[in-house]
Write a structure and sequence with these properties.
DsrEFH-like (chains A, B, C), Sulphur_relay_DsrE/F-like (chains A, B, C), homotrimer, 4 helices, DsrE family protein (chains A, B, C), alpha/beta, Hypothetical Protein Ychn, Chain: A
């Protein structure tokens, strides 16, 4: 099977749970064949805060290879710093730039 | 013209009407050249219930070739069974898996 | 670098600000290498009205090459006419048709 690449776009903190479920279903269905990345921007970055409801889950999913990226613009605009997020979360210059790059690499886009 | 493939992602019951309109516009614009598929997950599966506001429309659109798929996880989680949906609706292991597969096949993704 | 093509889908008037920010971040990150297009349908067309909050910004972004398209169905259904929008905004037969065409041309899809 061709390698599966999926990008899940996290745009609102309230979508955090749906996004995590999406990622888990992708892992369950494709196992080692999938590369999954969550890109959060706008209000969505809050769902990945260390102190947020998914802090632990982010770390656990990153350990099995899931990538997490937050938009630097959105993070700054809301007064957060790099230290507010688990170290496994990458800070990218812009969420949209990351999304465009990944889609160009063949990632399928999913917006819960 | 190259065959057109479009996947419309139905994520909330309240988006049911917009999704149906999207499908109708695709049929109107591309006619026989389009393969359209609606993938519902989360709360969105409710929009496809037999007893829901679009039960009849789902059957009519399926007759002209539109595909409908619901996420097994979401269906189960909300206590629905296969029988609650028109028989033309396919149950897929996961909505996100279906989306990723279709995008890999060249389907354009639309999220109303 | 390969030319970057990005389509931002504007579905709700309340998403106007996020969409404009997305476009600005794309320009900031990719400069002359990006072709960006905003496609508005449903309630989203209101965000592009001349008298709306982004009328001026639409004109300014169009001057640097950003494309704007509104769905004819949505525009009509809400009682608007071509004259209610800046002249730089293109009216397309359907928003979904435009999206499918652009994705087929290689545009990455972003739905804020």
């Amino acid at each position: 099977m061709k390698r599966v690449q999926a990008l899940v776009h996290l745009t609102e903190v309230g979508k955090g749970e749906a996004v995590m479920r999406n990622v888990e279903h992708l892992l369950e269905e494709f196992g080692n064949e999938v590369t999954a990345e969550v890109v959060a921007n706008g209000d969505g970055v809050k769902a990945l805060l260390i102190t947020g409801p998914h802090g632990e889950q982010v770390r656990a999913l990153a350990e099995v290879g899931v990538r997490f990226a937050i938009c630097a613009h959105s993070t700054r605009a809301q007064g957060f710093t790099r230290e507010d997020f688990p170290r496994v979360v990458a800070v990218v210059p812009s969420g949209v730039g990351e999304i465009v790059r990944r889609e160009n690499e063949g990632f399928a886009y999913i917006r819960p």
